[in-house]
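Q: Sequence in, structure out?
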Amino acid sequence: METTQLYLIGTTVPWFLLIMFRPKVLTFLVIVLSLFQLDWFTRYMGGVSGLNRISLVLAGLLGLRLAADRVLHRSFSLDRHLLLGPVCRLSLFFLVLTLLSNLFNDESLVLGFYELRYYFLGFAVTFGLYHYFPSALSLDLFKRCLVWIGLAQLPFSVLKWLSAGGGKTLTLDSVSGTFGGYGELVACQILVICIVLFEQLTTQRRIVRVNNYVLCLLLLVPLLLSGSATASVYIVLAIVFTWWLSAVHNKNIAVFLKQVIPISILGVCSLILLYHVFWKPNFDTEKQLNLDYMIEYYMLPPVTDYELYLLGADTQMGRARAVVEAVKLISETPWNFVLGYGSGATAEASFLHVVGRYYQSFGPLDGLGRNHYSRTLAEFGVAGMTAFIVFFAVIRNRIISVKGRASELNALFSLFLFVLSILSIYGETLTSFFFSFVLGFFLATAQVEFDKGEPA
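A: Exactly. Output:
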């Protein structure tokens, strides 16, 4: 560890410990520093590396404070907490699975538990919000907060776009809004666009004082500046899915048909902007928008020759190919098919100077950690993938029992699952600050809504 990093840790830890006595402040800082990631100062201003880990340290302190409160002040019943009980069970399951899989595969336990940090962040956010802000949480607050987070990406994306040469240099992974990577920006904007569009199609209410269709176009701007080609396809899918979900929610075919015109206008405007601002100036559109090329790109085999990587070749395998390779790898033995190769097996922890066994086995840059599906299968096998599916299925079934706003909760959760599902083939999702925060925020809010309908 560098001397500057040690100095930074030494000077900040005492302040962090003091913050533990103010759990509301601590929870707020965890959330803010997760969404406004400080590694931007490292990239553009020469700041100390690893600044984004401050939120993870704070999340650890929040976890300790939550544990102390549970032990000293209140009892905790999983049966009473209809939506938070599964969070505890899932957390315990992955702790046990990590221990078993890493020991069985002789993978580093330190790396394994370190790679669970984003899951733990989501756990801390969930219980921190629920226990310290119960009176403030509501579905309306949830929607407004996400919209303002989406709008906050606009000035930060413009600033980063200018810092990256105003489009004259490669901006991909440089224009990322308040996040450390453009993948989280894509996830944020698409999810918020889905929420705003769903509100318009079901209630016609404005979440903020801007026309919802205009708001959707504003939220699209950071995606145009980020240079994410895949986001173009996801935007179209998101609009179509949200339109369909609103029809199911309204249960009115006449309303559904009336929405064809505004939805078509929004879709056409989005495609025109994406084509003229992004595709036409940067790519050979005839080649890039060809279906055969897209399939070839997603199924591109990895280049494992390190010499080619040093010569500048693109060694990354296609995102769908990563899932295929992960399935092949775990299918080598029955135990690995069930348990995977251990948490962190496809990751690199530069902070700990530890590299997983399969981090570079399928290409010097991105191997089996290419997206969340491939990573989960490779590291946790069928057991890990099944655990996630069961968890989300249980949460969805229990949401239906929430009195009063079950239909709205279910719709918002469906939008979240849709965005999570399509972006999990694009990159890492649940192992990211944004998805950990949103899932934790939603579950805490849903639990509060459940509590409101229950007798004291």
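Residues 372-399 form the longest helix (28 residues).
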